[in-house]
Prior knowledge:
heterodimer, A: mainly alpha, B: 3 helices
Amino acid sequence: MAAEEHAAEHTQSAGEYIIHHLTFLANKKAGGIVDFSVIHWDSIFFSVLLAVLFGGSFYLAARKANAGVPTKFQNFVEFVVEFVDTQVKDTFHGTTKLIAPLALTIFCWVLLFNVMDMLPVDLLPAVGKSFGVGYLKVVPSTDVNVTFALSITVFLLIIYYSIKMKGVGGFLGEFAFNPFKSKNMVLQLLIMPINLIMEVVPFVARPVSLSLRLFGNLFAGEIIFLLLALMTLQGFAQLTSVGGWLGVLAHFVLGFAWAVYHILVILLQAFIFMMLTIVYLSMAHEHH
Amino acid sequence: MDLSHIYGMTVLAVGIIFGMGAFGTAIGFGVLGGRFLEGAARQPELMPVLRVQMFVVAALVDAVAFIGIGFALFFTFANPFVAAAQTAAQAAGAQ
């Protein structure tokens, strides 16, 4: 009977497996859609780890930079920095010195988040289980909280630079007097509500879309990896039948195809996040 | 407690979200790719530059479809409506 209980414990259904993989290592269960007392330890751990990895290695490369005989890693760092610098120079027409390092940080950090999705899904959670950690989600950008943290920070920077460059009056005036302007004060006051709606909605949609775009892409990618594995693989017993081998072959082909497409998605989403940050901050510096 | 109605409606909703996202994205990519090919045919020396910009715009076109997929998968695996119905049934049963 103990063996049966043991076996019943271990055979999860497909739904349970997926839900297990979608659960964060949190301090308590969320009491609703919005619960600010919940902390996702695994997201925090991996984000900080990747930030230290990125910051530390780039700092070391800069410290040990050798102009005459560059090392391979120094070459790589210079390539990335030049790439981001070109994008910033092409798009940003202000003088703020924060933009290029911010763009570099966003690009490299989001790219490192996304690259964690290339590891096999069960690998790090299995390591975690041997340390007694029940749930582990290793890709921080599949956590809405992480992507919103990045995009809300960018949103606050947009507001900060708008007010710094245009003043509070100029910043609010942009919402009230665009896109419909009029010389007549009475007409302008009547048009103001329409202007407010037409300007505030895209303004607030920017951080929301910035964060949910990254989240949706990575979340969907992770789920499709899980579903491909669940649909085609059924454990070592399948290796005894022809149908089982076809399943393994199907998993290899489909998994490979999706993984290759996912590499493109990873790079592209990090690049888009960086580009949109630069574009929004450039718009914050400009006058209409 | 009969959750079949909620499950059925959720499945329909997920199907519609996926389908309409795919529909819009397909048309968007078709127009985008067509314009890229036109531009590349007029000025072949600009093809690398145009290709980079095409990928940038492709990620933006994809965005809302993927946001929809994110929500649809959330409804599939962690259905908040089922959770709400279960807590309501528990509260009613406890009374």
